[in-house]
Amino acid sequence: MPWVLLRGVEDLVRPAGDVDLLVSAELVPGLDRLVAGVGFRRVVALGHGSHRFYFRYLSEEDLWIKLDVVSDISFGQFQELGTALAAGCLRRRVAVGPLWLPEAQDQAWLHILHLVLDKGEITPAKAPAARSAAAVATVENPVALFLDRKFGAGTAGKLLNLLQSGTFDDIPETAAGLKSRWTGTRVPPRVTSLANRVLRRVGPKLKGRGPVVGVLAPDGAGKTTLLHGLRSTCPLPSAYVYMGLWSASPMDRWLQKIRGGFLARKVFRIFRAGLAARYYSLRGRVVLMDRLAFDVLLPGSRTESRLAALTDALALRFQPRPDLVLVLDVPGEVMFARKGEHSPQKLEEWRKAYLELAEEIPSAHVLDASQTESAVRVKASRLLWNVAAPKGMDVGGAAEPLPLHLWMLLDWRFLLPVSQPEQLGYGGRLSSDAVAAISLLDPSARRIEPSSGPVPENEFDVVLLSEPDARLFTGAAASLRPGGWICLQVRRSLGSRPGPQTLAGWKRTLERSGFDDVAVYWHVPSLERPARFVPTASRTAVLDTLSHYSGVRFGKAKAAIGRLALNLGMFNVAAAEGTVIGRRSLEAGRLESL
Fold it and tell me: Phi/psi zone of residue 239: left (φ > 0), alpha (ψ -120 to 50 degrees), beta?
């Protein structure tokens, strides 16, 4: 099924915002099942047009990933400006490694209209991206022709001229004019905007019931801090509910004058917290409960009064069954130092009581809360996601953690359309960690050594070479099966080895050797630890990366040199290090010697 990544290709290593995808309308009916199969849970948000939102938590990286998937292209703050551009953009999509991206001019125009029509202005932070997009876009593109048909000939050209002028003060007025003249949709934009504005007031919700998460611990253990930390970092819709049955309030001095006043307050809190928690859970929100009715089971909490015992039973019965109970374990001295209430000895007694109580609660998990707030929150987030993840999804809670530092050395595989090679070959200057990582991907992977003699042909479907010389490349290329992929990790050199000395040189070598789909990726900041793989064929991606150089040493000078090289068509010569990939022709003709 056709799909494209609309924007943010340079941010995929660790997405800071949404991952925006456009998919074919034919994919929508089975999309929830498909995405749940790889561990994402849907958040339903009415009033957002065709937008569908999916979330997943990666505990190893403390990272929430949000997919924003659309099946049409609509603009405006409330998706009121509908278009029929989606089918054409999907039809003209291009492959970059394992990704499908919009055609370069489509991408530029979609970004321009996103800034102008969705945002209504171009802020200084967005100005470089707007200028880069305007430098790529032309008036012959189908999106530009769409604007000319809708608003009159020359509209796209005027908008481009305005962006290329570098002054964006007139953008708000231009945006307002385009929106006011927008026609051709089945429902008038004003009606769509009003309807979506009203629907959004319902708020986002998980598809299905929201999990109930409660925290138990004595005062000073960090219950409230943890819950507020979870709520601020977890993007799932959530609600905070406080259930302190005996906590003090400003009304206490009046309640003590009324017989049964404190008991009435306790009953009121039982019903208020219980109803609120049930309501939010049914609304599809993660319920974060500060304290639980389980407190009544602690030693010293039980009473001889039949009425008080009845209210305790009511609290346990009316409280929604928690999916997860976090019991915070902190030494008494630490709790006393944090809050200064009670005494270290008393707090230590309560600590032991809560630990004993945890053994009686099936959904309880004890957390060492004497660690930093961040460390405790990460552990709690993992446990929260265990109960919020799609049912039947193995979140790996009991498995040994993966050797993440090794998997990160395999990031090059995302540049290839081969997710799991049948037979992998490697060679060159690979570290011992890199070789260990390759064994995780393919335990039967074999090293390729430079040889002057005959080499085995058609043996590998993927070959990875690090800083190869001419002899190693020739042998490795011959060992590829027709249709197999080669991945070259290279640095710019000054004649230190036989063979090409630049990314551009290696690109020409692959093309002359009969390889198809040759592409070059610039590694930023380094070959060993890249934060970005930048496709050098994308002028927009390169310029956006160069714009981030201002904060590094000699950054402005490096960015200026990079832009000059890009304008001269020599960026693949100037780039210090990167990866060059190519696919061996299916005809597997003669490979040219270096």
Answer: beta
Are 13 and 532 in contact by the 8 Å Cβ rule? The answer is: yes
Pair 540, 531: CB distance under 8 Å: no
Residue 31 CB: number of other CB atoms within 10 A? 17
C-alpha distances out from residue 301 to 144, 295, 296, Å: 72, 7, 5
Which two structure tokens, joined as six digits, stand for 24?
């074919």
In contact, 543 and 108? CB cutoff 8 Å: no
Please give the single-letter amino acid code of residue 244: G
Mean pLDDT by 10 residues, the chain (594 residues): 86 87 92 88 94 93 94 94 94 89 93 92 89 92 95 94 88 92 90 94 91 89 90 93 67 62 69 89 93 76 66 78 91 82 84 87 89 92 92 49 60 80 88 81 84 66 91 90 93 78 93 93 82 88 77 68 90 92 75 48
Please tell me the distance from the alpha carbon of residue 230 to that of residue 377, in angstroms, as a whole number: 6
At position 336, the amino acid (one-letter code) is F
Tokens read off for 472: 């190693």
Residue in the block written with tokens 């015992």: 309
Q: Which candidate, 425, 327, 422, places its Cα nearest to that of 376?
A: 327
Nearest to 500 by CA among 517, 518, 526: 518
Both tokens of 531, joined, read 């934060």
Q: Where are the alpha helices (DSSP H) in 283-417?
A: 306-318, 332-339, 344-358, 373-388, 404-407
**Hey, which residues does 23 pair with through a beta bridge?**
3
How far, in Å, CA of 4 to CA of 17, rounded? Answer: 17
> Which tokens hold the place of 436?
């260990």
Give kind and range of the element (H or E) at residue 112. helix 104-113
Whole-structure pTM value: 0.65
**The pLDDT of residue 247:** 62
Spatial neighbors of 319 by CB under 8 A, at least 6 apart, are 243, 270, 273, 274, 277, 292, 293
pLDDT (0 to 100) of residue 398: 39
